[in-house]
Amino acid sequence: MKNIYLDNNATTPILPEAIIAIEDMLTNYGNPSSMHEAGRIVKEKITAASENIASLFNGNADDFIFTSCATESNNTILKSVLFQKYNFTPNIIISNIEHPAILNTAKFLAKNGIDVTFLPVNSNGVIEPEDLKKALKDTTVLISIMTANNEIGTIQPIEEIGKIALEREIFFHTDAVQAAGMMNFDVSSLPISAASFSAHKMYAPKGIGLLYIKNLQKQKKHITPLLHGGHQGNGLRAGTENTIGIVAYGAAAEYMKKNLDTEISYLKNLRDSFENKVKSEIPDIKIHAESAPRKPNTSNISFKYIEGESILLGLDMDGIKVSTGSACSTGSLDPSHVITAIDTDVEAAHGSIRFSFGRTNDESDIKYTVEKLAKVVSNLREISPLSKK
Amino acid sequence: MSTNWAYNDNVKSHFQNPKNVWKENEESFDADGKGEVGSPACGDMMLIMIKVKDNRISDFKWKTFGCASAIASTSALSEMVLKDGGMTLEEAYKITPEDIIKYLGGLPANKIHCSVLGDKALQAAIDDYFDKNKLANPFKQAVSEIICHCLNITEEDIRMEVLEGAVDFETLQQRTKISTVCGKCKDNAKNVQQKYIDKYYAETIYKPE
C-alpha cells in the first residue's frame, strides 16, 4: 500500500535534521534553569535553537516565547483582553475564517463581556481592508487576523491590515501558523504587534508553539500569562521548557532558513501541476480561492454531486491522506465555516477536499493521486442521485 | 493498511462494494414506487426505487449522495429488504434506523443521523407505490402524540431530532423552538428527549460526574 501524505496543513512529517536533534537531546536531561553544568548545556542548546528560529522569522530572539502549541499562543493574546482594566467595553475584531483556536476563544471572550466583531471575507476568502476600516470602533483594542488560512490557503493583506491597526495604536496579532516554513514571514518588516506559530506545521514535533511579541519588554504590560509560576518565557509563560521540542524546532528552522525559497517554488510547482491535472481529468469541480493569493502548498477543491467524507475515505483506501470540510467529518452537522464563508452554495462545502502538499511529496505522488481521485470521484458520482447522466 | 478504520469492517465493505445500487439514470428503472429524502444542502440525499410483486418488494435499487456511512446504510438496507425473496411491504415499512444500525454492527454516535434517511426513503417509496396504484395505505402511522401544543411538535419530531444529533435540550430548542411559547411542555419535552437519548446514545455520550 502506498503512503501519500497530502495533509501537511494538519501536520507535517518530522525533518531528519530535527530527528537528530531530538535524539541528541534525549540524554541531555538538564533543566535549562539550573546553574550547574547539566543545566548550562541544555540552556545553551535551547538558546541556539531560539536564535535559529528568530533568524528564520528575522526577529530578535528575546521577542519570542515558547508555548505548548499555537492554540496556547492565540489564547494568551486574546484572553489578555479580559485582564486589562478598561473603563469601557473593549472591542476586538477577528475574521470569520479564523482557525477554531481564535474563533472559539473569541466566542469565549464574547460570553465574558467583550465586544467581538467577526469580520466577513470576500468571495475569494480575503479580508477587504476597507471593510476592516468600517468595522473599527473607538473601543477596538485588538485585531487578530490570520496570515494564511488552513483550509483554503488564502493569504490575508497583513501589511495593509497592520498599517490600519498600528496607525490607530491598536494591538495587531496574526495567527501565522500556516505561513511558517511555507512563505516568507518577516516579523521585523511586517507591521504586526504579535504572531503565533507552531512547530509541527513546519516539520518539527507536536507540543511546541511560539508566540512572538514585537518589543516584548515594552509590550509585556498588555499581556497576561495563562500560566503563572517560574520566570520562563520572560515571565509570560511559566513552566520548564519543552527542551526536546525546542531543539527540534530550532533544527527545522535552521534548515528552513537555508532552503525556504527552494521549498516554496517546489511546493508551488507541485500544487500547480496537481491542479492542472485535476482540471483536465475531472469535470464539474471548483477550486476554491483559485485566483486569490494562496500559500503555495494548498489546494481546496469541491467535487460536485458527491460528499467529501466518502471521497476522503475512498482515497484513504488507496493510501492517500487528505482532509475535508464536509459536515460528516467534523462530528458536528455543519460543514466547514471557511467554505461556507466564501461560497453561498452549501453543497460545495460538503463536497470539498483539501490537498496540502509538503516537502516529502513529489511529482509521482501527484500522478498517482489524480489517477485514484478520478476513479473515486467517478464511482461516487455513479451512485449519486445528483449527477446528471 | 491498518485494521482500525473509521468504521467497522461491515460498514467498510458496504461502502467499498455497495449492493443493489442503481448506476443508470432513474427513469430507466421502471419503479413501482420511488422515494427521495434529504437535500444536498444537508449533505445527505437518498433515492430509493422499488418493484412490488405479490405484496413483496421484489427489487430495490438506490442512489445516495452522502458520507461513507450513509452509503453503507442504504446498501445494508437494500440487502435486508431483498433477503429471502423480499420483505412484505409491511415488514419493510416497519424497518427503523436501529434495525439498520444493528444490521451494520453499529455506527459511531455522530454518524447515527446518516442512517436515518434510508428507512424514511423506503417508507416514501412504499407510500408512492400505494399512491400510484390508488390503493389505501394501511401503514401510514396515525399521527404521533403531540408534545408541544403551541407549535404542534410531536414525539416523532423529537425522536428524529435526537437521531439527527440533538442530544441536549438547547440544541433541540434551537432546531424546533419547542416550548418557547407557553413553556408548559418543557418538562415533558425534556423527558421525551431524554428517553431517546438514552435509547440511542446511552453508551457513547460522555457524561461527566
What are its keywords?
heterodimer, A: Aspartate Aminotransferase, domain 2, seven-stranded mixed β-sheet, four-stranded antiparallel β-sheet, 13 helices, 42% helix, 14% strand, globular, B: alpha+beta, Sufe protein. Chain: A, two-stranded antiparallel sheet
Question: How are the elements arranged and paired?
Answer:
The complex is a heterodimer of chains A (389) and B (209).
Chain A: E1 4-5, H1 16-26, H2 37-56, E2 64-67, H3 70-83, E3 91-95, H4 100-111, E4 115-119, H5 129-135, E5 140-144, H6 158-167, E6 171-175, E7 194-198, E8 209-213, H7 216-219, H8 243-281, E9 285-287, E10 298-303, H9 308-317, E11 320-321, E12 323-324, H10 327-330, H11 337-342, H12 346-350, E13 352-356, H13 363-382
Parallel strand pairs in A: 1-11, 3-4, 3-5, 5-6, 6-7
Antiparallel strand pairs in A: 2-8, 7-8, 9-10, 10-13, 12-13
Chain B: H1 9-16, E1 33-39, E2 44-53, E3 56-65, H2 68-82, H3 89-93, H4 97-104, H5 112-132, E4 146-148, E5 153-154, H6 155-163, H7 169-176, H8 186-201
Antiparallel strand pairs in B: 1-2, 2-3, 4-5
Helix pairs in contact in B: 1-2, 2-4, 2-5, 6-8
3D architecture notes:
In chain A, 42% of the residues lie in helices and 14% in strands. Chain A has a seven-stranded mixed beta sheet with strand order 2-8-7-6-5-3-4, sandwiched between helices. With 389 residues, chain A is an alpha/beta fold. Chain B is α+β, with helices and mostly antiparallel strands and 209 residues long. Chain B folds into two domains: 124 residues, Sufe protein. Chain: A, CATH 3.90.1010; 56 residues, Arc Repressor Mutant, subunit A (Orthogonal Bundle), CATH 1.10.10. Helices cover 43% and strands 15% of the residues of chain B. The radius of gyration of chain B is 18 Å and the shape is globular. Classes of the chains: A alpha/beta (389), B alpha+beta (209). The interface between A and B is medium-sized, with 28 and 35 residues.
